[in-house]
User: Which sequence fits this backbone?
């Protein structure tokens, strides 16, 4: 007979041919090697909140946690690429020029490439999710008989959500991303199996849902919804002449991002503990979005999910519950 259901503090991230999990026993990754073996390893994680209580204060902890998760996630992603043999495949497909650069710069080349990619990534994200909605609003407002300026914050927020959904759908069509999304599905299904009190077996995990309220996708959607509310309020206090200058209006909104992150984190944390109507309503868009960002995994992918989760949970499930 299955044990009672419980909400846990366990969370994870899909990697290249693997999954990273964080739980009461720390952080671990399980990655499928080219020879078929699953390599499970623990990784040391140092949180700022453990060094100073200030970083654990509500709202602040959400901002810090988001930055830490980005850094940790990036490191785990690079680690999984190495273990899974992805780097060897890329090396075999290198052009003569790329091999020459590698010989000349060695390990520095990867750091340079990653640095450039990070800068370009942030620039692209800024353009797509901050500048483009303002540009589109300006274009629509110009060609509309009614004056939409009083609804700028709401209108731009809705445009941002539409752009986000279309972007994620386009990305999900890529072959390599589809496989990562299967690992994302395995991560959720494995946690759902554990939280339901069932034994962690491939057959049991298969029965469970791949949608989870604490997912990063839900966090992003909560942030988008919060941004509509906060930016709409901000819009009333910013002079019309300033809002008409697109780049200036975008820059004024930027300081709101940390606040939105912090509040979004607190909601996701609350959603992990509660299952009321308020949580269901705000979680619904994110859970729907997971139909795009997660896919049903095959048995071998589920095995990786189980290996990663078993590495970070305690023998007594009640010890893993959210306090």
Assistant:
């Amino acid at each position: 007979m299955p044990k009672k259901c419980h909400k846990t503090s366990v969370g994870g991230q899909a990697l290249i041919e693997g999954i990273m999990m964080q739980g009461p026993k720390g952080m671990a990754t399980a990655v499928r090697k080219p020879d078929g073996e699953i390599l499970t390893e623990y990784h040391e994680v140092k949180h700022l909140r453990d060094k100073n209580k200030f970083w654990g204060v509500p709202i602040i902890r959400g901002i810090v946690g988001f930055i830490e998760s980005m850094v940790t996630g990036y490191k785990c992603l690079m680690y999984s690429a190495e273990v899974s043999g992805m780097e060897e495949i890329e090396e075999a497909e290198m052009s003569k020029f790329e091999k020459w650069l590698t010989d000349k710069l060695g390990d520095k080349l990867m750091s340079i490439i990653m640095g450039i990619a990070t800068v370009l990534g942030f620039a692209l994200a800024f353009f797509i999710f901050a500048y483009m909605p303002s540009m589109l609003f300006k274009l629509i407002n110009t060609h509309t008989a009614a004056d939409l300026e009083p609804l700028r914050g709401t209108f731009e927020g809705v445009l941002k959500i539409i752009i986000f959904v279309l972007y994620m759908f386009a990305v999900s069509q890529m072959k390599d991303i589809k496989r990562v999304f299967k690992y994302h599905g395995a991560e959720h299904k494995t946690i759902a199996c554990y939280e339901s009190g069932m034994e962690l077996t491939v057959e049991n995990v298969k029965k469970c849902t791949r949608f989870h309220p604490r997912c990063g996708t839900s966090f992003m959607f909560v942030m988008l919804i919060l941004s509509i509310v906060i930016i709409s309020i901000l819009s009333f206090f910013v002079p019309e002449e300033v809002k008409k200058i697109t780049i200036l209006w975008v820059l004024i909104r930027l300081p709101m991002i940390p606040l939105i992150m912090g509040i979004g984190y607190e909601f996701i944390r609350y959603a992990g503990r509660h299952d009321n109507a308020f949580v269901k309503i705000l979680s619904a868009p994110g859970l729907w979005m997971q139909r795009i960002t997660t896919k049903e995994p095959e048995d071998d992918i589920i095995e990786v999910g189980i290996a990663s989760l078993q590495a970070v949970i305690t023998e007594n499930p009640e010890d893993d519950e959210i306090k």
About this structure: The chain has a mean pLDDT of 84. The first strand starts at residue 11 and ends at 15. DSSP finds 14 helices and four strands in the chain. Residues 107-142 form the longest helix (36 residues).
